[in-house]
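Follow-up to my earlier ticket, as requested here are the two runs.
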Amino acid sequence: MTKNSFKIILQKEHETVDVEYILHDTLLARKWFHKIKHIRHVPVDPVNSGLEDLSNLPAILSEFCDFAGIPNVDVDITDQKDLNTLHEIYEQNHDRLSVLKDNAILYKFHLAIHHQEDLGKTKPKNKIKIAWGTKEGPLIEAFPCYKYYAPSVKKNQLYLTEPELGKTPFQYFENGEPSSQSRINTLCKSHSNLRATCHISLKDIVPQEFNEGFTTWFKQFKEPWLAQNGLQDWTPVDEYCAPLLAHTDCKQDLTDFIFKKIMLE
């Protein structure tokens, strides 16, 4: 391996595969690689890396409420409006709970909400997540990641993952969130924080044009939102793609593999 190459070790049952990557030649990729040099020996966070069972939202909700010290919430988890309410509860408690020790349930609750939203939408697993959660600590920095989005996503390549808190404008629309400028400005954020968190894409993604319903709806809120986030526009590339970190010649189907470690030398 050269100074700009590394291996990601993946495992599926008793099968192990070493995928060699070459760092993409951008400032963002180099800054990400510098973070990896510091954190590569730290175990990944099982919740944020998709290694925890998120299927029982009522049980996870109950555990979250106990941890947060708030009354349990009676909701219909098949109703998107109730899921939006749960997401708002998560947001309201995030800052207070994120500084506490042993707070994995905070992030498990958030991801379980999105897991429930995706049920029935024919969304197979499309990425291998690699995340350290709160263990990243001071490695997180403000950086205009939105300027580095690749025009499409390629199978088995490595990409930067957008921070979990919040929704993209199309996700916001699709989830039936309130048609409110203030709520959109609160929940929809540009990708402006650079973390070590990344993912291997399991499929090619070519962004398709937005449907007319979303375009018409977003038009009334778009300009103030763009101004708040320092953006010139919001395109399908911004919605569906991600910044490329590293590329590989590996053609193997990596579905059902999980991350084990990163090797730099």
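Run two:
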Amino acid sequence: MTLYVAPIVEGQTEQGCVDRLLHRVWGDLLKRPERLQVIEAFRGHRDQLIHLNGAVLTETVRKAFLQMKAKSRRDTDASLLVLILLDAEQDCPATLAPRLVKTAVESLAPGAVISCVLAKQMLENWIVGGACSLASINGLPNAIPLRTDVENLRGSSWLERQLRLVDRTRSYRKTIDAKEFVQRLDLHECRTNCPSFDKLCRELQARVPTLGPIAELKNPEDQAQLEPGS
């Protein structure tokens, strides 16, 4: 089996590192032997992607799905997944994610598989969740204290403060730094500290039937997203 993933993202951070992140989760954390093929991320403005009229999300999902179908057309053992990966910011993931999935599902043919994972509050919070493993990496301090409130802070601001402890002129560069941090991040630490990252891991796990029934997922909205036709 080859799992093809078409990510839909909102910003420079996700677009720059989502491929590396998904491959690391698949191979390093989940230890899956199957091939993972991540196609180039489709990027849109968050406000437009989550708009109640659903127009931009619908169009973006269709484009991503068609591109994924084209990439996998000669693969007779392909499994396809459209992954909506956005920042939750101040929205409640348990409310927003099911609405986005419902809109996306309605835009595609029955049987298309769509997942939505919202990083709480932003993808940088996942980096903070595994930051103890990043000490002295890419300009960070030689020692980084363990955080227990990872998903209650603004990840990009926290990372910039840490960088400036070493170099007062240093700023956090989304397209450069996030890619470097994701490459070195301790995924186990991140999964322990960030429930929203754990959800991403469980969504990928659910694409491999041998890993067990979908009923093992923790949250009701997770189950709803994985029902036939979702």
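The only thing I checked on run two: The beta strands are 2-9, 35-38, 42-43, 78-87, 114-119. Let me know what else you need.
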